[in-house]
Amino acid sequence: MGNEQQTIQFDEFRKLDIRIAEIVCAKDIPGSDKLLDLTVSLGDEERRIIAGIKKSYSKEKLVGRKIVVVANIAPKNIMGFESRGMLMAAAIYMADGEMDGVALLVPDGDPKPGTRIT
């Protein structure tokens, strides 16, 4: 909260492949109280995203939800699983400044999975 961020050029922003995804499966990750193993549909493909949203969202309430993801972020190994994307979420803070959870960014209306955000 309140961190100064570096300004980027528009061409750098355009490199991000930000798309609508639909969560098709959500599983626990053994040994983690923060992470969930999500399978998301980007329309023409499915991929795994490991996300630290377990304290804010139950697996059951995630399946079928549409979210916003960065689809072209480099794969990253998280707790032995390859994550191939990053979901977009806003941090929620308590009055004392402590983080209290996250709120997923979700699309308005009903865009199809894979729709690019421009």
How are the SSEs placed, and which strands pair?
Blueprint lengths: L9 H5 L3 E11 L7 E6 L4 E6 L7 H4 L3 E5 L5 E3 L2 E3 L2 E2 L1 E5 L5 E6 L14
Antiparallel strand pairs: 1-2, 1-4, 2-3, 4-7, 5-6, 8-9
Main traits of this protein?
about 120 residues, mainly beta, OB fold (Dihydrolipoamide Acetyltransferase, E2P), two-stranded antiparallel sheet
Describe the structure.
- With about 120 residues, the chain is mainly beta.
- The chain has one domain (about 10-105): Nucleic acid-binding proteins (OB fold (Dihydrolipoamide Acetyltransferase, E2P)), CATH 2.40.50.140.
- It has helices spanning about 10-15, 60, and strands at about 20-30, 35-40, 45-50, 65-70, 75-80, 80-85, 85, 90-95, 100-105.
- The strands form three sheets. A five-stranded antiparallel beta sheet has the order 3-2-1-4-7.
Write out the strand line-up for the largest beta sheet, numbering strands in chain order: 3-2-1-4-7
What is the number of strand segments?
Answer: 9
Number of separate helices: 2
Radius of gyration: 15 Å
Tell me, briefly, the overall form.
Answer: globular
CATH architecture: Beta Barrel
DSSP strand (E) fraction? 35-45%
Low-confidence stretches: none
- What is the CATH topology? OB fold (Dihydrolipoamide Acetyltransferase, E2P)
Q: What's the helical proportion of residues?
A: under 10%
Superfamily (CATH H level) name: Nucleic acid-binding proteins
The secondary-structure class comes to mainly beta
CATH class: Mainly Beta
* Biggest pleated-sheet summary: 5 strands, antiparallel
Mean pLDDT: 94
Helices and strands, in order, run as HEEEHEEEEEE
Domain tally = 1
The CA-CA distance between the termini, in Å, is 25 Å
